[in-house]
Amino acid sequence: MHLLSEGWSQPQWTITIKNLSSAVDLRKIDQSATAEIGIHRTCWIAVMKICCIGAGYVGGPTMAMIAKQCPEIQVHVVDLNESRIAAWNSSQLPVYEPGLDEVVREARDRNLFFSCKVESAIAEADIIFISVNTPTKAFGQGAGRAANLEFVEKCARQIARVSKGHKIIVEKSTVPVRTAAAVRQILASEANNATFDVLSNPEFLAEGTAVADLLRPDRVLIGGDGAAAVEKLANIYARWVPRERILTTNLWSSELSKLTANAFLAQRVSSINSISALCEATGADVDEVARAIGSDSRIGPKFLKASVGFGGSCFQKDILNLVYLCEHFGLPEVAHYWEQVVLMNQHQKSRFSRQIASSMNNTLSDKKIAIWGFAFKKDTNDTRETPAIDVCIDLIGERARLAIYDPQVDSQTIVHDLTKALGERGRKGELDWLRDHVQIVDDPYVAADQAQAVAVLTEWDQFRTIDSERLSKLMVGPKLIFDGRRVIDADRMNLAGLSVYRIGQGFRWARAAVSGA
Ligand code: UDX
Ligand code: UDX
Question: Which atom of ligand 1 is nearest to the CA of 84?
Answer without folding.
Answer: 23
